[in-house]
Amino acid sequence: MKKINIAIDGPASSGKSTVAKIIANDLGFVYTDTGAMYRSITYLALKTGCGLDDETAIAALIDQYPITFKPKEKGQDVFVGAEEVTEAIRQPQVTNAVSEVSAHPAVRKKLVEQQQAIAANGGVVMDGRDIGTAVLPQAEVKIFLVASVEERAQRRFKENQQKGIDTTFDVLKEEIQQRDYLDSHREVSPLKQADDAVRIDTSGMSIKEVVAAIKQTMTKKGY
Ligand code: DC
Which among 41, 71, 128, 218 could bridge 34 via Cys, Cβ 3.0 to 4.6 Å? Predict the structure, then answer.
């Protein structure tokens, strides 16, 4: 299989990371979770007491604490500097602050540079909000995943229950709607479908069906 780049974008809890991991694994490609990078910086900002509006100080944290991924049997561990933050970056405090932090142009500039370096030699499945539009506009395959807010809140609710994170369905639904709004209305590279992306509505679809739909898109494109 040619080492192409595959961009998977979409709103919160649309199933991007689950299917991106499976596709990367099946193809022997590298999976890159760009949301985890924005979450890691948000975690650091909260931990070090940076104001969430202090763009310069937050951008400086990116140079100070390199973000790295270590593959493991199921998925990957995330590190900032030497600290393992895989679970910590999924906590509600981080989730509720990440849209504000990721809207800072200086933060995006640094993280986008790192994401482009990761994909420079191809063979990457990258998920996020702006991969097809800003990070990898030349990606050979671009997918935009959507699902109803009800279904996304339901998925996040189940995920949180499994992880022992205590939140109600209604609060989760409201948080997802709020994050969708902020991510789609920020000035720099907002969440938006690329003109050449294939849109897949995953409402009512199983993970297997979504993976099959993406592979079908690849085949149609000649990959
Ligand atoms: O995919 P996720 O829910 O883990 O992403 C967390 C946040 O990071 C999301 O609400 C917006 C931001 N993000 C972004 O701005 N650009 C990306 N490429 C990925 C995530």
Answer: 128
Query: For residue 166, what pLDDT is reported?
Result: 86
Q: Whose structure tokens read 């593959």?
A: 71
- In testing the pocket of ligand 1, which one of 8, 17, 34 has its CB within 8 Å of the most ligand atoms? 34
Closest C-alpha to ligand 1, atom 3: 12
Instruction: List, as one string, the DSSP characters of 131-165.
Output: IIIII-TT-SEEEEEE--HHHHHHHHHHHHHHHT-
Overall average pLDDT of the 109-127 stretch: 98
> Which atom from ligand 1 is nearest to the alpha carbon of 186?
15
Q: Is the CB of residue 128 less than 8 Å from the CB of residue 34?
A: yes
- The stretch 12-35 carries a mean pLDDT of 95
**The pLDDT of residue 41:** 98
Per the CB < 8 A criterion, the answer to whether 88 and 42 are in contact is no
| For the chain, counts of helices (H) and of strands (E) | 8, 8
Beta strands 76-80; 83-84: pairing state: antiparallel
What's the whole-number mean pLDDT along residues 185-210? 95
